[in-house]
Structure formats: C-alpha cells, structure tokens
Amino acid sequence: MTTNAMETQSTALEQALALAKTLEEMLEREFEQLKVQDLDAFEASQGTKNDLLQQLAQLAGIQGPDSADALGPEWDGFKAHMAHCRDMHRRNEVLIGRKVDAIRGALQSLQVQDPTSSVEIYDRLGKVSRGRRGGRGYTDA
C-alpha cells in the first residue's frame, strides 16, 4: 500500500471514529427523548441519523455485512464503537416496543366489553367499574 493510500485510509478511519462517537451521542439523546416521550424531537433526528449512517458506511467502504468483516485490524476500534451503537439502537428499540405495548394495553382495556373481565376502568360518573359494560351504569337505570 502506498503512503498516500495509507494516509487516506488513516484519515477515513479518524473521520469514521468521530462520526461513530457522534452516532453514540445521538442514540443516547434518542433514548432520553423516548423516556420522556418527546416524539417530535425523536422524529426530527431520524433523517440526521440516517445520513450519518450513510456517511459511516461510505467512509468505511461497507456495502454489507461481508464487507464489514473484511475491514483490517486497524478498524477494530471502529467496529467496537459500531457494535456499541448497535446495542444502543436495540435498547431504544426495546423501549419503543414496551411503550407501544403499554399503549396497546391501555387502548384494549378501554375497549373491553366483557362483563367478566377483571380490568377495572372508570365509568362516565367517575366510578370504577369492571369493563365498559360491567355493573349497572346510569344508562341501564
């Protein structure tokens, strides 16, 4: 490998490491945004994150999983950063999944029409009832 090629690769590696650090910070901000349910900020950052991922792939010369494995040992630090980013992304994905499940559960409990259901919700008078149709409501009186 020529000196110019080694310098170019070294520069690409330095830039990739800096972008990987930026990605880590972005994923941490996303996690905080998800925890406080700031979905507008979360949505706004998605385009920037996708651009960042494209830049990283271009700098490292990665077109797929096989080309990532073909990177030399000098890229091991970069690969470690990216593995950490993958884990952070998965953590965010799990949090999103849990929030979606909680919302689905809440919606389902509001739609319960089984009088034998153990789910308790408030009726129109603010009284706790078992299910939407459970007990005698004022409409049944």
What does this 3D model show about the protein?
The chain is built from four helices and two strands, in the order ααααββ. It has a two-stranded antiparallel ribbon. It is 67% helix and 4% strand. It has helices at residues 3-35, 39-60, 65-69, 76-110; strands at 120-122, 128-130. With 141 residues, it is mainly alpha-helical.
List keywords for this structure.
about 140 residues; 4 helices; about 5% strand
Précis, in short:
This protein is mostly helical and 141 residues long. The protein has 4 helices and 2 strands.
Biggest sheet statistics: 2 strands, antiparallel
Number of domains: 1
Backbone CA Rg: 25 Å
- The secondary-structure element order is HHHHEE
Strand percent estimate: under 5%
- Helix run count: 4
Helix/strand-derived class?
A: mainly alpha
Rounded mean pLDDT is: 82
- Side by side, the strands of the main sheet go 1-2
Oligomer: single chain
The strand count comes to 2
- The coarse silhouette is elongated
Low-confidence stretches: 132-138
Summarize the amount of helix as a percent range. 55-70%
End-to-end span in angstroms? 89 Å
